[in-house]
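Protocol step 6 of 9: fold each sequence in the batch and record its structure tokens directly after the sequence line. For illustration, a two-sequence batch is reproduced in full.

Sequence one:
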Amino acid sequence: MIYFDHNATTPLDERVLEAMMPFLSTFYGNPSSLYRQGRLTRSAIDNAREQVAALIDAPASQIIFTSGGTEANNLALATLTTHDRLAISTTEHPSIIESAVSLQKQGIKLSHINIDNHGLITKDELDKVTNDPPSLASIMFANNETGVIQDIATITQQLRANDVKVHTDAVQALGKIPISFKQLAVHLMSLSSHKIYGPKGCGALVYEKGLKINPLLIGGGQEHGFRAGTENVAAIVGFGKAAELAKFELIERSTKLLALRSQLEVALKTIPNISIFADESERLPNTILCGIPQVDGEMLLMKLDKKGYAVSSGSACASGGNEPSPVLIAMGIEPTLAKSAIRISLGLSNTQNEITNFILQLKTLVYQA
């Protein structure tokens, strides 16, 4: 199987697994225990917190470990009370969209921030938001389907000037492009381990000091009292190691992925009438979302699967239906073309030869359609 779906999840780096193994066997103590075994695991968590903090240029004391990006997103929106107002972009992850709808049912007023046909939030749209400022705005850093990168620093500057708190889902951006929590000046940021060659089941919410957070889980003092429950030490250690590797290898990784993406885009454009969505916008170095008229995206996905290629028809957390991508609809893409979309998200193990063979197979399947 040739794996081209790294935005859904990444394989576990062998170096990460090696770092985790002692905490799956020898060092099994509860981090809340005061004896030596407990202190060892507590120290390992503290080290992992420093490693994650270093990757995003944030204070380690402001990182809350969670079970993943979805919990981090839910926890970020839990900062709201029933008298607050929430604004979210129209291209957010389902864990933001569905949480927002749930909060709306509880009395919170919900509004949406639109994007243009390049997948970007415009100055005019941002002005609409600040004309009637919400309490919190949630805007994804890099879109999981198109790869489009928002100018979060500029957006945050305008929103902060109007007393709007800002949350950004940086799950897809992490480990692919430089991120500085301090420079972006957001109030909240969501992260996930399994998108950067770390283990599944671990993520983090980064928060600005002094921000009031309402825990989703109560019953213990873990994670500064914001997230009760005995910590998943091995997964946290794995996240920390993956973050450390991502920091030191960031330029090398980005350069390799961008070269592969460029090769893939050039080859894709030899297919008649193909659309590469948001190709004029700044995007993640590994991500391409494309569509071919009169081709059903999910059917093409299954045909590619039979030929040994794993791609996606959009977000792995929202796939399974036969509806066009809400992200593409928000960009003004015609629904029939949107339903033809497949996402190719490259990873560190992919090669130029794999891309060459993929294009040959893709052309065969498309021309048969």
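Sequence two, same batch, same settings:
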Amino acid sequence: MSAIDRQCRVRVPIAAVWALYASIDGLRALTPSVFGLQIETIQSPVGTSPDDLPAGSEITLSFRPFLVGPRIRVATTITERQHTDTTAWFVDSMDSGLFERWEHYHLCYGDGESTIVRDRIAYRLSDRVAWLDPFVRAMIGVGLRYRHWRTRRECTP
């Protein structure tokens, strides 16, 4: 199992960062356009809003990196979600896609008037595409650096 961790500090309170991270609009805003993201479907538990991505939400999306080749379809589930005044996080787990296993931990920690944002992605590629690991690691790294840059841009007044 491989893992990639990245973190940054955003100079706004946790509520502003969480509002961005924990929504479908945030997913769109925080994904680099070169990934060619399309949200196909969102199913949320009865009585909840799919826009808020509550635990139990199932999301089908697709990517077309660099807008080349066929679209890669992915199904994920928000498996965990917690929010307090000082800590907020959720985990999405891939149900189907290129990865044998994928868990993305989206973590926010309040630190006074700032927020520490940490993303941790743990994954395992299937044997048939394991040779792509160096490329996958690079793409995940680019995606997380972009995500943190964009978080600062979106949240900082």
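Proceed to step 7 once all outputs are recorded. Observation for sequence two: The longest helix spans residues 133-155.
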